[in-house]
């Protein structure tokens, strides 16, 4: 039986930091409201001309350095992103060109905030079946580009960034299981209205922005994340007490607290970056993982539960022996 193991992690954040106090100058909001409802204190924002692929490249270079691999070692690149640089070539190909990787499959997939978990699930399957030895998996976004900066209900929530992992085939686990789901019945609760084959004129005019019914999203997310925790533990015949670290999607501190409570986990065992990064969509889980790996909290052998939820709705988890 083959498994994939995480052998390197990395992240990249834009230099520009926007605090809640900065947002008070733009929309009718307060630092107190944003902190108490979301846990967010600041977020990073891509500079003009700085793209999702720029951030992805930074994260991947860090992850490859940590894994001590070079371009010739990479057999596959999978990127979760809803804010790619171009319609095509896909961001995997753009990354290949920057990193000097020639030949292996490289592609991106859209699953909104669950993008990294979906990408990890796909890459893990390829490694497990023996077709791929080493894969680069990325979550990268510049969501601040597609929010309405006059809408206080959404613009305070999002930030930009990228996180990446390198996974490699191993006889020992590794990634124990991944679980991914979607339900399009919820498509109208959280979405971006236009694309290429619909509403292209609005897109070109920059007239569209992320739409969200925050309250309803919140309720479904909390319920669904609770269920995926149960599903993941059951699939591995593990109990709540067997998880060392929860690495949740960083959308909202209250959502994270609800999932931690369901797991009976003290918040000291939950990796939190929402205060510094805001909701970076597909980038949030791999960035949080990288933060806790690099600051030494996560140690080899620890059991990690990664989970995410996003527009679609999409949701997923990964149970990892680090
Ligand atoms: N500053 C100040 N007031 C704000 C505000 C802001 N940035 N945004 C909204 N409000 C106001 C609303 O207008 C409303 O005012 P009203 O009562 O006069 O109408 C009031 O605050 C309450 O709004 P509501 O939407 O009910 O607040 P909430 O407690 O549900 O918190 C969210 C709003 C967005 C923080 C919360 O719903 C949430 O986090 N939802 C999930 C969003 C999410 O994570 N999406 C991504 C999923 S991957």
Could you characterize the architecture of this molecule?
This protein has 322 residues and is of the alpha/beta class. 34% of the residues lie in helices and 24% in strands. It contains 11 helices and 13 strands. The strands form 4 sheets. It has a 5-stranded mixed beta sheet with strand order 1-7-6-4-5, with helices on both faces. Helix 4 links the parallel strand 4 (76-80) and strand 5 (105-109). The chain is globular and about 55 Å long. The mean pLDDT is 97. Bound molecules: coenzyme A (COA).
Sequence of strands across the biggest β-sheet: 1-7-6-4-5
Stretches where pLDDT is under 50 for at least 5 consecutive residues are: none
Helix content: 25-40%
Q: Return the string of H and E elements.
A: EEHHEHEHEHEHEEEHEHEHHHEE
Radius of gyration: 18 Å
Bound small molecules, deduplicated? coenzyme A
- Structural class by secondary-structure content: alpha/beta
The total strand number stands at 13
What is the residue-mean pLDDT, rounded to a whole number?
97
Measured distance between first and last alpha carbons: 18 Å
The share of residues in extended strands comes to: 15-25%
Could you give a short account of the major beta sheet? 5 strands, mixed
**What's the helix count?**
11
Overall form: globular
């Amino acid at each position: 039986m083959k498994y994939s193991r995480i052998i390197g992690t990395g992240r990249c954040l834009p230099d520009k930091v926007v605090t809640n106090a900065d947002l008070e100058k733009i929309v009718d909001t307060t630092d107190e409201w944003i902190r108490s409802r979301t846990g967010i204190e600041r977020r990073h924002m891509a500079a003009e001309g700085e793209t999702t692929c720029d951030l992805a490249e930074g994260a991947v270079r860090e992850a490859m350095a940590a894994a001590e691999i070079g371009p010739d070692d990479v057999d596959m690149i999978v990127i979760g992103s809803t804010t790619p640089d171009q319609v095509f070539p896909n961001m995997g190909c753009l990354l290949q060109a920057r990193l000097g990787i020639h030949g292996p499959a490289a592609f991106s997939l859209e699953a909104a905030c669950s993008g990294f978990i979906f990408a990890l699930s796909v890459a893990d399957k390829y490694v497990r079946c023996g077709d791929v030895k080493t894969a680069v998996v990325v979550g990268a976004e510049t969501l601040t580009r597609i929010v309405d900066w006059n809408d206080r209900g959404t613009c305070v929530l999002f930030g930009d960034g990228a996180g990446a992992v390198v996974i490699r085939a191993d006889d020992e686990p590794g990634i124990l299981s991944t679980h991914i789901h979607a339900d399009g019945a919820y498509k109208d609760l959280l979405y971006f209205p236009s694309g290429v084959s619909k509403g292209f004129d609005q897109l070109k005019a920059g007239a569209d922005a992320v739409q969200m019914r925050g309250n309803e999203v919140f309720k479904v997310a909390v319920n669904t994340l609770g269920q995926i925790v149960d599903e993941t533990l059951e699939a591995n015949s593990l109990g709540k007490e067997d998880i060392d670290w929860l690495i949740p999607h960083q959308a909202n501190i209250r959502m994270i607290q609800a999932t931690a409570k369901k797991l009976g986990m003290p918040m000291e065992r939950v990796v939190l970056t929402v205060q510094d990064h805001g909701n970076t969509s597909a980038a949030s889980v791999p960035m949080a993982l990288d933060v806790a790996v690099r600051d030494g909290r996560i140690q080899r052998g620890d059991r990690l539960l990664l989970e995410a939820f996003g527009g679609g709705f999409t949701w997923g988890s990964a149970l990892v022996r680090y």
